[in-house]
Design a protein that fits this description.
The protein is an alpha+beta fold. The protein is built from four helices and six strands.
Length: about 180
């Protein structure tokens, strides 16, 4: 995700996740893939997650934004929303991603906004609208996540179950969830 200090969380999220020894911006990111793609999460709450991704460096051979880059942005934003909805006792595992690409983009910055379609006890579905710098819709995506109970042997909590950590004993997550 690059600069973690740019992500903002509502105070109630900070309060809910406090005391767990977790780096929320690192936990709620696309990990190493997001860093390579320069994906940035700007704001994160269960009601709305926004982030950006540069087109440059994320194109296909024809010079257009790669559809997979839009998918990474959408899955990241929807997963963050689902994790925040589930709270510290749950982890979100993506089970379905659908992307419709509306127009090509050759340069600039795209912005994704994920909002909930459904937030239940065992699943959460988020729709992400991705736009270009002119506000034109580039992609519409829908992600459904299974919300699983945090494993009892997860150590410090949510951190060790999502696979977002470095593997070092720094309170971040290192073990990917079962079946993912």
């Amino acid at each position: 995700m690059g600069e973690h200090d740019r992500t903002t969380f509502p105070q109630e999220i900070l309060d809910e996740w406090s005391g767990l020894g977790l780096d929320l911006p690192a936990l709620f990111s696309a990990g190493h893939l997001g860093e390579r793609m320069d994906l940035r999460i700007l704001h994160a709450s269960p009601e709305e997650v926004t982030g950006t991704l540069p087109v440059e460096g994320n194109t296909q051979p024809y010079g257009l934004l790669h559809g997979g880059a839009s998918a990474v942005l959408a899955e990241t934003l929807g997963s963050v929303g689902a994790m925040l909805h589930g709270g510290p006792g749950k982890l979100a595992v993506g089970v379905d991603l659908n992307c419709t690409h509306h127009r090509g983009v050759r340069s600039g910055l795209i912005t994704g906004t994920a909002t909930p379609v459904h937030r239940g006890r065992s699943t959460a579905t988020y729709e992400t609208v991705i736009t270009d710098e002119d506000g034109k819709r580039v992609c519409t995506a829908r992600l459904t996540c299974l919300l699983r109970e945090m494993p009892q042997d997860a150590g410090t909590g949510a951190g060790e179950a999502t696979g977002g950590g470095t593997g070092e004993d720094d309170g971040t997550l290192a073990t990917p969830p079962e079946g993912r």
